[in-house]
Amino acid sequence: MLIIKSTAYSQTLAGQSGYLTFTINEGETIVLHGNADHAAAYQWYKDGVKISGATSKDYKAGVAGIYTVVAYNIEGCPSATSEGVHIVVNSVTPPKTPDTLVDLTVSIRSSNIHASPGDNFNYVLIAKNNSPIAGTNVQVSYIIPPNLVYVPQSGDIGIINYDATTHKLTWDISKIKENDPAQLIITVKALTPGMVQSIVNIKGKETDPIMANNVDETAQQVYPLVVSNVFTPNGDGVNDTFVIPGLETYSDTELTIINRWGNTVYQKTNYKNDWDGQGMVEGTYFYVLRAKNKAGVWDTYKGYLTLLRTKI
Description:
This protein has no helices and 23 strands. It is mostly beta strands. The chain starts with a strand and ends in a 5-residue tail after the last strand.
């Protein structure tokens, strides 16, 4: 259950798709209040993506999107996801005078490939000027997330500076005119699986009347291996070996199978998806899989595996 209280004027609308909708102006915020009996902790989400650090009962939202929350009891068990609350942000028209004001905006978008650890993919950054006079000494900044590595390209020389210590990338633009956006494509390499949150900021020499559109963010999923938890070596030609889809893309692998008594019953380096459980009885086993991804990093996967031979 969500109870909403606002730190700024808001208007409740008939939400699309059944969502309760609130409208605020740029620069304003609205406080979302999670209310669950016996809750020990909370986790807030925006558009289905976990919001880092948003684990309190209240969350102050100032960005458009669909917000939901999950409550956890003292044992760490999660509740069902709450109904969504739709936050709409009204754009404020920049003043035309005085002519010393320049409204800069920035956006970032991922190429949205099905990325795995070791894969390269791109972000597209677009800097724009919404004002009639040119913006000068414009700088876009982007701190590369820790599970990504910046991959310089030949065309980046002279317009990009990258600090390998702070992981901060800066894109310098001498001038941006109205209706003449600048675009930059950044190449990165994924190191580890998980959701990657990227945030960019823009600033210029002139005073910016609308600061709310000087920042943008996007999310890119880096997918891990998905290890099946059941296989059926019964000779019917279906699921007769323990197959891990995508394992062939890893240069080195180590698979260990352990029975319920803690004994290692199978171990293989550079596993080829060919274990058929020969000599093993039906039941539950524990697996440990280590796989070196294309970034040269060893990923470790652990879990339970059920072996079934009975034909249905």
